[in-house]
Amino acid sequence: MRYKLLGRSGLRVSEISLGALTFGEGWGNGAPKDVSRRIFDTYLDRGGNFIDTANKYIDGTSEEYVGEFIADKRERIVLATKYTLNMRPDDPNAGGNQRKNLVQSLEASLKRLRTDYVDLYWVHSWDYMTPVDEVMRALDDAVRAGKVLYVGISNTPAWIVSQANTLAELRGWTRFVALQIEYSLIERTPEREFLPMARAHDLAIAAWAPLAGGLLTGKYSGDAKRDEAVTRRMFMNNRFFTERNFGIARELGKIAREIGRPDAQVAINWVRRQKGVMVPIVGARTVEQIEQNLGCLDFELDDDHLAQLNEVSRIPLGYPHEFTSIERIQRGLYGDMLERIDNHRA
Questions:
Q1: Domains plus CATH for the chain?
Q2: Distance (Å, rounded) from C-alpha 37 to C-alpha 70?
């Protein structure tokens, strides 16, 4: 295990994050406490230190388990949790980005996690109601109170993240150091706006669903009825069932067989090789799954295999990216000098 600086910070996090969404059985597809503990211990034994959970995961059970597991080793753990999702459906202020929910959610999380601070506090999702300045000032207050060390944001449009960090920098508030997004061979649309923005703001990327809900593990046949039955209780998998995505999975499997590695390891390895600070979030329901997934650290995809995967999963970048890449437009921008300009930001 190697370690990365978490964006524009000095915090060192392991190159793989352990996602604790599966810690608990309350939602019907997680792991019991004893198995969750073994998954956690296996991750730490490989050098992992970056645990990702949320107040809503298994309705609080995930945080409770994580709090118990880290109790005797809190100092070495980089603990990340989230707020925003509603814990009391009949209360309009029990969800959202507003200050009231942030304060209440943080206090409840700290109690479940048995700690007096979290290393990284994520905005779980944008609510499109709370003003940006309210969110950033409330997060800054939590940092100044010593209850949060760093802040990050997830599932939020790139323009809002950029606005928030610019505002925080201008006003001397705590800025986001990390961005959590869905990113995989199946879901590459973040390359249009999120990844360029992250590089511009020096944000680390925590990539959730690097295995596309299991489609990139090799366990699906491409037969719609069979796969629907296999995944009827799985989180969001069905939306991945398209012919394009099965084509990507088949190419991935071909490369995995060539190099003698499981499909899942190749898929996570591809995410690790992308530009910037890229930290895949890997979850598991069994010890065998976490052991296999951590095997992605034991090899590197070569350039030819990377090129194959890039090509089969390529997406159109759309406007304005494709428009400004047209040779005639580039000549209009740079005249005849483009090839003679060394652009270190490219």
A1: 3-315 (3.20.20.100), 320-346 (no CATH)
A2: 10
